[in-house]
Amino acid sequence: MALMDRIRRFFSSSSYFLDDSGRPRTVIKTSDADVGFSLSSNQRSEQFLKSLWTYYTGESTIFASINYTAWNTVMSGYDIMTSNKEIKELLEEFRLQTDLDTKLLDSVIYCLVFGDAFIERIFNKKEDKLLDIKVVNPITMEIEYDKYGRITGYRQVINGQKGDLIDPKYIAHFRFFPDPDSPYGISIITPSIDTLKRKVRTDKAIANAIIRHGTPKYVVSIGSDKIAEPIPDAVFDEIKRELKNITEKNEIIVPWTVKVDSIDEKGISGVEEYFSYFQTQLITGLLCPEEALGLGRGSTEATAYIKAVMYERMIKSFQLKLASFLVREIFKPFLQGHGFTQDDFKDLRVVFRSVTDEDEAMKAKWLGNLLRGYKNEPKPFTINEIRAMFGLPPLSDEEIKRMKEEYGMLAKSVEDDEDE
User: Fold this and answer.
1) Residue 397: inside a domain, yes or no?
2) Do 333 and 404 sit in the same domain of this protein?
3) Do 95 and 138 have their domain in common?
4) Do 315 and 393 reside in the same domain of the chain?
5) What is the average pLDDT across 16-36?
6) Number of folded domains in the chain?
7) Which 3 state secondary structure label does DSSP give 278?
8) Is 159 helix (H, G, I), strand (E, B) or coil?
9) Which residues contact 120 (CB under 8 A, 6 or more apart)?
10) Most confident of 39-53, 186-200, 280-294, 328-342
11) Does one domain contain both 93 and 108?
12) Beta strands of 159-245 (E only): which ranges?
């Protein structure tokens, strides 16, 4: 059989395109690139948490989305609401002395990136008064819990060394998105990790394609059919040397025996569609509207308005959860250390300010139009019901009476001015 193959190859004509074995002389080889569907393993570990921080600091869309959400949640400001003036003054002083707002901002960023934020409560020597708080690196924190999911303590791991078990009294744990299988929270990056990996690969491929197709390439022809003289290798070497480091500042000057043509001038098409596909998926997972990041080209004013309203409501939900945490985990331990009881601060609330006031504006307009129809009739809502609609604490009977008296005096003054 081998002899017949050799005889057949001997008498067969040689091919320009196939070698002696019958294979193509030039083979284009490609490497395997699996971009199929997968859900990456997101088991909580130090390495995984560090990778989340790398994504946050190294990918502009994630960095912008998380900071946009965190800063709008915290730095729009908040008001401490309570009927006890002494409590309000103490809390405002504690807020300034501890730089509480900045620490809340750091905690929200950590919570979005890692899924959890840990705040250390710092007490006096007697451990009966809360003096300060400190934001702890979530990468170093582990939660100890029993088979029922109840937290028994916290442990800090630094350079692989586990510290002593920390009593929950000294740690305030905050999370936005709970995990039913563990006391840890879910990072806002985690649902988009597969999309992010594909986007990073696509970004690199697009960048390389732009560089490749954006850089002119040349075909150099030397000599002609009228010149029979063999072309020396030195000529090829000289042309390669001249074209090797060519830039936009160079001009190409050649003799009549050399012809230079450029190729690959059209570039690549559809780049934006490739980029936008993964970009849109990523932004959706990060819960941030494209318009907030300066993107969203093609969206109308109506769709942008709806997105703004929905984003405002989402920020409010974050603020509501953060406000509850702030009162329960920080303010109440602080007040208890100063001798206040539960009854003293039962009406204590933290109300964050709105980002765009879109909802409040629509609500106020609707309420104003409604109440104008009941000008000389009993109103459908009480003062405290209206205040509750806007997230404000109720007024006491004395405050309502005083407000009505002041409003009556103001109305009478307006009528007198109109008569004059």
Assistant:
1) yes
2) no
3) yes
4) no
5) 48
6) 2
7) helix
8) coil
9) 133, 134, 135, 136, 170, 171, 172
10) 328-342
11) yes
12) 161-162, 171-174, 178-179, 182-185, 217-222
Residue pair 97/355 in contact (Cβ under 8 Å)? The answer is no
Do both 351 and 418 map to the same domain?
A: no
Bridge partners, residue 221, by sequence: 259
Domain that holds residue 158: 40-189+311-355
pLDDT at position 27:
44
More confident residue, 114 or 256: 114
Question: Residue 201 domain-assigned?
Answer: no
Q: Do 46 and 115 sit in the same domain of this protein?
A: yes
Q: Which of residues 146 and 110 earns the better pLDDT score?
A: 110
CA gyration radius for the chain?
Answer: 35
Residues 338, 408 within the same domain? no
Q: Give counts: helices (H), strands (E), the chain.
A: 13, 12
Domain end position, chosen among 299, 327, 355: 355
Q: What angle in degrees, to the nearest 10, is found between the helix axes of 100-114 and 85-97?
A: 70
Of 190-194, 317-321, 381-385, least confident by mean pLDDT is 381-385
Cα gap 330→347, rounded to integer Å: 16
Q: What are phi and psi for residue 265, nearest 5 degrees? A: -90, -15
DSSP run (H or E) holding 360: helix 358-372
Helix axes 46-58, 100-114, angle to 10 degrees: 110
Whether residues 89 and 183 share a domain: the answer is yes
Grade residue 408 by pLDDT with cuts at 50, 70 and 90: low
Q: CB-based contacts of 202: which residues, under 8 Å, 6+ apart?
A: 274, 275, 278
- CA angle 331-337-339, nearest 5°? 105
* pLDDT, tens digit (0-9, with 9 covering 90-100), for 51-90: 999 999 988 888 988 999 999 999 988 999 998 999 999 9
What is the C-alpha separation between 119 and 331, in angstroms, rounded? 13
Q: How far apart are CA 305 and CA 328, in angstroms?
A: 35
- Answer with the one of 339, 355, 371 that is the final residue of a domain: 355
Question: Strand locations in 205-271, DSSP E?
Answer: 217-222, 258-263
- Residue with token string 């193959």: 5
Question: Does any domain span residue 293?
Answer: no
Whether residue 95 lies inside any domain: the answer is yes
Q: Is 75 exposed, middle or buried (0-12, 13-18, 19+ CB in 10 A)?
A: middle
230-239 own/partner pairs: CB under 8 Å, 24+ apart: none
Contacts of 274 (CB under 8 A, 6+ apart): 202, 206
Between 300 and 166, residue with greater pLDDT: 166
